[in-house]
Specification:
Elements: H1 9-76, H2 79-101, H3 106-127, H4 137-217, H5 231-280, H6 289-320, E1 324-326, E2 328-331, H7 332-342, H8 344-349, E3 353-356, E4 362-365, H9 367-384, E5 390-397, E6 401-408, H10 442-452, E7 456-460, E8 469-475, H11 481-484, E9 486-488
Parallel strand pairs: 1-9, 3-5
Antiparallel strand pairs: 2-4, 5-6, 6-8, 7-8
Helix pairs in contact: 1-2, 1-4, 2-3, 3-4, 4-5, 5-6, 6-10, 7-9, 9-10
């Protein structure tokens, strides 16, 4: 099969042009043949008509000259006039011979033969020794009248032949018109079919390459890349598949690196958190107020560092594959209350006013990933709210969706950053002071988890100091199959 495939896309395009143009050239060739035939027929008809008219006129003139010379010879009986008659006779015979060449019918031939015989008979009688006494002026006149009638009949037949040639030319033109019509009716679909076939043959590999590049851009590396078509596009497909495998290797290396780094960071972090917890519990002795404040700072910083490490791990998992959901019954209201409880210390430390009214919002989903969604949004709201500001958390269930809205009094997200705020590692320009700089993965992970549940996340707030607003909408019945990724058995309610 590969032997008959074009070596390049250019060859396929040229081959397609050839298949499309060949029927048109065939039609033009036939049209040219018929035009040549019509032109030749028209030229022949016009020439024959003009020549026949001229010869008929010459025949009439020579017959008139014959009659005049013959009558003068009979009256005057002069040798000079007889010579004039002989010259007129020769002129008549020449015209008659030329006219026979254009006689297209047997009737014309017969009339010309009769005319020639009668003229020759009269000539023989007038030029013979001792012309007969019965050859009078009246008899000669009558015989010339008869020959003139024959000449008129020949002229009429010549006109009939011209009309016949004109009809033949018209018939040939009509035939050419029919041929060209039916040929066009047959070749037009063939041309359109050829154009359609080669359009598909050319566009299909291009479309395959486009889809392959889109899959690579979307980090969908599971499907091998194969491109059919010309050999150069097949080679391009092989290079894209090589690129896919290379990206898989790089992705695996990145995942291993993140896991290794996260593991190496977690080990000392665990020791730090356990030590700070032992100090907070006054295991090694009582603490004064300043020491308790230091242990609180250590514990909060440890939690922040643990959150950053978990963000790296979550991002690694979402990039290497679709999020795996452990689907089960969960209550978004209970999850939100639990998350807010974990942030009570940070809320009190910054004197933030929390507006939250717990409401039942049962839905089908992965409780742990729903907790991550709420935690990331609440953490951002606390982080960006000014001291003494307000954080509002609202949960609104309806017949099909559960809506989570988290608002704060911070600077908000400017219009120019809203298209990029959900990109991995992107951090906006309005960063608060006094906080450990984050990874820029929280909102990216939040969006991935919302999409995995078949939901969506929207951003509000004018970005002019009026605060930020994030709204997450999740379906009550859980994700559809195309959104769910790999759904694992529920591990039980947490």
């Amino acid at each position: 099969m590969s032997a008959v495939r074009p070596r390049s896309l250019l060859s396929l395009i040229l081959l397609g042009f050839g298949f499309v143009i060949v029927p048109l050239f065939v039609a033009l060739g036939y049209a040219g043949v018929y035009v040549d035939r019509l032109s030749e027929q028209a030229h022949t008809t016009v020439y024959n008509a003009a020549r026949a008219i001229q010869l008929s006129s010459n025949l009439d003139d020579s017959l008139t000259a014959l009659e005049r010379a013959a009558r003068q010879h009979l009256v005057l009986d002069d040798e000079g006039l007889l010579e004039v008659y002989r010259n007129a006779h020769q002129q008549f015979r020449d015209n008659l011979t030329e006219l026979r060449r254009f006689a297209a019918t047997t009737t014309q031939q017969r009339l010309l033969n009769v005319l020639g015989e009668r003229e020759q008979s009269l000539f023989d009688e007038l030029t013979a020794e001792g012309a007969p006494d019965g050859l009078t002026q009246e008899a000669v006149t009558d015989r010339f009248i008869a020959m003139t009638q024959l000449a008129d009949a020949v002229s009429t037949r010549s006109n009939d032949v011209i009309d016949q040639e004109v009809r033949r030319m018209q018939s040939l033109g009509a035939t050419a018109q029919r041929w060209l019509f039916w040929m066009g009716a047959a070749l037009l679909p063939l041309t359109l079919i050829s154009a359609g076939v080669f359009t598909v043959l050319i566009s299909r590999p291009i479309r395959g390459i486009d889809q392959a590049i889109r899959r690579l851009g979307a980090a969908r590396f599971d499907e091998p890349i194969t491109v059919s078509g010309p050999q150069d596009l097949q080679a391009l497909g092989e290079r894209l598949d090589w690129l896919r495998n290379r990206l898989i290797e790089l992705e695996n290396e990145k995942t291993r690196f993140l896991r290794h780094v996260s593991h190496e960071l977690k080990t000392p972090l665990t020791a730090i958190r356990e030590s700070s917890q032992l100090l907070s519990e006054e295991v090694v002795g009582p603490l004064n107020d300043e020491q308790r404040e230091i242990t609180t700072i250590l514990d909060d910083s440890g939690r922040q560092l643990q959150g950053l490490i978990e963000d790296l791990l979550d991002f690694s998992r979402t990039q290497s594959q679709l999020p795996q959901l452990r689907l089960g019954q969960a209550d978004l209201g209970e999850i939100a209350a639990e998350v807010l409880g974990r942030h009570r210390a940070a809320i009190r430390a910054r004197d933030i006013h929390l507006d939250f009214r717990e409401a039942k919002a049962p839905l089908r989903g992965d409780a742990e990933k729903l907790r991550t969604i709420v935690d990331n949004l609440v953490s951002n709201a606390i982080k960006f709210s000014p001291t003494g500001g307000r954080v509002r958390v609202t949960i609104e269930p309806d017949n099909e969706w559960v809506t989570l809205v988290v608002e704060d009094d911070g600077p908000g997200v400017p219009e120019g950053e809203r298209t990029r705020i959900f990109e991995a590692f992107y951090q906006g320009g309005n960063q608060p002071e006094g906080y450990v700089k984050g990874t820029g993965l929280g909102l990216s992970i939040t969006r991935e988890y919302a999409l995995a549940h078949g939901g969506r996340i929207e951003i509000g707030g004018a970005g002019d100091g009026t605060g930020g607003r994030f709204r997450v909408m999740l379906p009550l019945r859980g994700p559809a199959p195309q959104h769910a990724g790999t759904a694992l058995p529920a591990a039980g309610k947490e």
